[in-house]
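Support request, please re-run this one:
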Amino acid sequence: MITADGCPVEVYTMLPAAGEAEIVHAAISAGATVLDLGCGTGRIAHRLVELGHPVTAVDDSPEMLAHLRGAEKVCARIEDLRLGRGFDAVLLASHLINGSGIRGLLAAVRRHLSDDGRALIEWHPPEWFDRLAEGDGGMLGEVRVSLRDIVRRNEALTATVRYEARGGRWEQRFTAYRLTEANLVSHLAEAGLAFEGWRDPERTWFGVVSV
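Re-run finished. Output below.
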């Protein structure tokens, strides 16, 4: 099964968590409510539930949501989401912010962030776009990942990611857009948000609060 945006659902069920939930957990209070935007098959949401957080998980793919357990499920595009309630924490992982719809994504984050809440966002930092090379990848759990057909055009990078596992092979084409820290701060301000600080040594996760 391939989702409308090209994600192979079977592969996503095999990808392991890589400490993302622990980064979120360390940044929020015990038992804080979490809105997981673009949750996929629940790779992060499942661990957050185990850590004691009530999670509302949002994805526009019913096939992805079918694999969620222990969380409230909402099938919707992030940009269209209007739940009418705020959350202690809003999670925007998987480098979604480096896509073409940054304004709509950040507007959804702001709509659902409680006044004293915090959003945790994952991005590709600017240097990632410079160092990425053909053949990069490795093992993610049982899944072998490799990149090919990389094309750079201005601030956009397009590539194909190949997944191999259990005798199967899947490919997904993606485009990511470079954001500088100045760009990022500007987009956040436009959405009524403010950069709070980095949340990991690699500076791939950062906190955001409302203003």
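The two ends are 41 Å apart (CA to CA). The chain has a mean pLDDT of 95.
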